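STRUCTURE REQUEST FORM
Protein name: Thiol-disulfide isomerase or thioredoxin
Source organism: Christiangramia echinicola
Requested output: structure tokens
Priority: standard
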Amino acid sequence: MKKLLLVFLLIGPIVFSQQELEEKTYFSEALYFNLSDYNRKADIAYRFNDYEKGKELFENFTSTHLEGSYMDNFKFRNLRKKEVQLYDFKKPVFLITYASWCVPSKGEIPALNELAAEYKDIDFVVLFWDRREKAKELAESFSKDISVVYVDESQNNGAYVVRQLKHSLGLPTCFLLSGDKKIMDIRRSVFPPLQTEEETAYRENYIALETSISNNLVNSYDEVYADNVQVE
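Status: completed
Returned output:
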């Protein structure tokens, strides 16, 4: 009887953790089963210039099918050409995607720099779909509190990453990931009208981004930290 109890104590936690792992739905899997339906409906909306409908479809698709799934351990390269995996970032992650032909929203970069300086318990990551030289040039606008990575499509590297993260939802797209890389929120950038004053554009971006961060990442980080303290 004692032997059986010992086996249960040793095996039980392992089986439970495997069960938890098997129940996870990953971002790539959620895309596979739901992306084509979203694309079909979104294409019709944009064909008729119904941008409000397109926005509604995007928000419904991401909130219903993608949020709550876990981001795959995608691979990128940093500006020193070293391979970087998403799971190398141990804190909650604020990930936003850009490219040289996709101009950031007015006031967005200053807002990101400010938030990265304020939220030290979050990893801010900017992903460029560009050559290293271009990514390095564009990275100069971002503070040292932000990690800049890139995927160079011209080298045929990271094709899987490109297909999943870039061509599925377009860009710029922002992903808010908990410490265990669960997708808490997916959002598009704020684009104030061109005539908007720089300071006003900055404030609009700051408020929108800070609200999303405080609602989705700060609480999740605090909960994980509290759980760890209780376990110890």
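Reviewer notes: DSSP finds seven helices and seven strands in the chain. Residues 14-19, 221-232 have pLDDT under 50 and may be disordered.
Form closed.
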